[in-house]
Write a structure and sequence with these properties.
Layout lengths: L1 E5 L3 H13 L3 E5 L2 H7 L7 E5 L7 H10 L6 E5 L4 H9 L4 E4 L4 H15 L6 E4 L2 E4 L4 E5 L4 E3 L4 H13 L4 E2 H8 L8 H15 L4 E6 L3 E6 L5
Parallel strand pairs: 1-2, 1-3, 3-4, 4-5
Antiparallel strand pairs: 6-7, 7-8, 8-9, 10-12, 11-12
Helix pairs in contact: 2-3, 6-8
Length: about 230
């Protein structure tokens, strides 16, 4: 998942970015609301984490501006303020959740997972398609059948692609969005590299009756393999 972090404190931003990157997010960091508005004109993000105490245009104004520009990605506001009115104002400006500093990384990750599930109309931390199960809270994947549960070993980028496909299933997933989910500004990956991870996933899923269908000019979709008889 590609995440936009808007935080003017370099030390705080570095710590948050490291923690989120270790959790599998492709994190892009900017230090001002003005820069955030600029990058969202040309880049797509799955979710945003925005500090309220930004210089000049603050985080609430940024959130309101993002919504006015038509951006629907979930927004989580970070703030040192704990007053009820501040929380209410943040939600009224278009934020989806609100965390007070200081906070623990596991709670931030849990809130981000919840926001992403909500944005994709998913109701559980365990994403499923046929026998495939992805436990996003415990970062564990498996193939579950009536007789056995087999671990599904996924590399970091395979996990990212699989999570995105499961969140979209049964709808198709856009290849460009997969590419953006796999990388941020500080990393480069070619469009052909997406094919590599799709190929690896096919090899792991097809023996268990799950196909990854290519949709020409668009992307990919998870489908169950029809069985005869």
């Amino acid at each position: 998942m590609r995440l936009l972090l808007v935080e003017d404190d370099v030390l705080v931003a570095s710590g948050i970015k490291l923690g989120l990157s270790d959790a599998g997010y492709a994190v892009d960091w900017v230090g001002s609301a003005e820069r955030a508005l600029e990058v969202t004109l040309s880049e797509a993000f799955d979710i945003a984490v925005i500090d309220i105490g930004l210089p000049q245009m603050n985080g609430l104004m940024l959130t309101q501006a993002l919504r006015a520009n038509g951006h629907t990605m979930p927004v989580l506001i970070l703030t040192a303020r704990d007053a009820l009115q501040d929380r209410v104002q943040g939600l009224d400006k278009g934020a989806d959740d609100y965390m007070v500093k200081p906070f623990e990384l596991p709670e931030l990750l849990a809130r981000l997972r919840a926001l992403l599930r909500r944005s994709q109309a998913a109701t559980s931390a365990v994403l499923k398609f046929g026998p495939v199960e992805l436990d996003t809270a415990n970062h564990a994947a498996c193939i579950r059948s009536a007789s056995a549960v087999l671990p599904l070993e996924l590399g970091p980028r395979e996990w990212t692609v699989m999570e995105y496909l499961l969140l979209q299933a049964p709808k198709p997933t856009n290849k460009d969005k997969l590419l953006q989910a796999l990388t941020g500004w500080d990393k480069e990956i070619t469009p052909n590299a997406v094919e590599v991870y799709i190929s690896r996933l096919r090899a792991k899923l097809e023996p268990h009756g799950v196909a990854l269908r290519s949709i020409r000019g668009f992307g990919y979709r998870l489908e169950m393999i029809a069985t005869n008889g």
